[in-house]
Design goal:
Elements (H helix, E strand, L loop, with lengths): L1 H21 L2 H24 L7 H16 L3 H21 L5 H23 L3 H25 L16 H21 L6 H29 L14 H5 L2 H12 L2
């Protein structure tokens, strides 16, 4: 039953992402913004378990400001939106004496972790590059799982407290899988990018994808939760699906404008 729920949930979120990406930048931007608002709430709920209470309503307003800055495709406006949001949070700290310093630090962390990273998906002008985000994140994760399950024998002891089942073979397999998938996609998408550049991007992006997954695992372990939410049956919340993608997004944006 759990496997069926996981399959249904996985297919559902996949179809939503593929649809909004296929239908164009406006719908993708709206979709990513909705996902970011949900992610803000999920992160705030996680910190509540540590008796840390970020002002999630204010963070959602800041999130919308940053997403608007990302949509306008202006680096200057995007940067100003981030700075303005940080100032808003700090001003809130001054005028609300009920907040602890931990609440403000958590708020700033959430801003950097969710909208600042996720907003880079919206900043990608050429939609063909967005597909690389999905291929790299999901491809790396799938190959890492398959290779780790089949031949993984050397545990990554340094991160055993976060992900005890992570293996060196699985990690390498994830990188190789991302390279293969991205090279195939670049060929059929007719993107005029050199093979060497695709390989370099794939290696760095696959590593960032795994780092994103580990950061999310660390947060969940520290806050005592299994998943960030239960929106997606069998998969958890929005952050459980976007944890690796948001780390790739800034690099992919830079890759798309080279």
């Amino acid at each position: 039953m759990n496997l069926v729920k996981r399959m249904i949930g996985g297919v559902a979120i996949l179809l939503v992402l593929l649809l909004i990406t296929f239908l164009g930048h406006i719908l993708l931007s709206i979709g990513v913004t909705i996902f970011s608002v949900i992610a803000i709430k999920e992160m705030s709920n996680a910190f509540h378990n540590l008796n840390i209470n970020p002002p999630w309503g204010l963070l959602m307003i800041c999130d919308l400001i940053i997403m608007l800055g990302a949509y306008l495709w202006s680096t200057e406006f995007y940067t100003m939106a981030i700075i303005f949001s940080i100032v808003i949070v700090l001003m809130y700290m001054i005028f609300n004496n009920k907040n602890k310093i931990e609440d403000i630090f958590a708020s700033l962390f959430i801003l950097m972790y969710v909208p600042v990273l996720m907003g880079n998906i919206i900043r990608i002008v050429d939609q063909r590059y967005v597909w690389l985000l999905y291929l790299t994140a999901w491809g790396s994760d799938t190959f890492a799982y398959l290779v780790g399950s089949l031949i993984g024998s050397h545990k990554m002891k340094s991160i055993g407290h976060i992900s005890p089942n992570k293996t060196i073979e699985g990690s390498i397999g994830g990188v190789i899988g991302a390279i293969i998938l991205n090279l195939i996609y670049i060929h059929f998408a007719s993107l005029n990018i050199s093979t060497s550049l695709v390989i370099i991007f794939s290696i760095v992006a696959a590593i960032l994808s795994q780092v994103g997954d580990l950061v999310a695992s660390f947060i969940k372990r520290q806050t005592g939760i299994k998943d960030f939410g239960d929106l997606i049956p069998g998969h958890g919340g929005i952050m459980d699906r976007f944890d690796s993608m948001i780390f790739i997004a800034p690099l992919l944006y830079l890759f798309s404008i080279i």
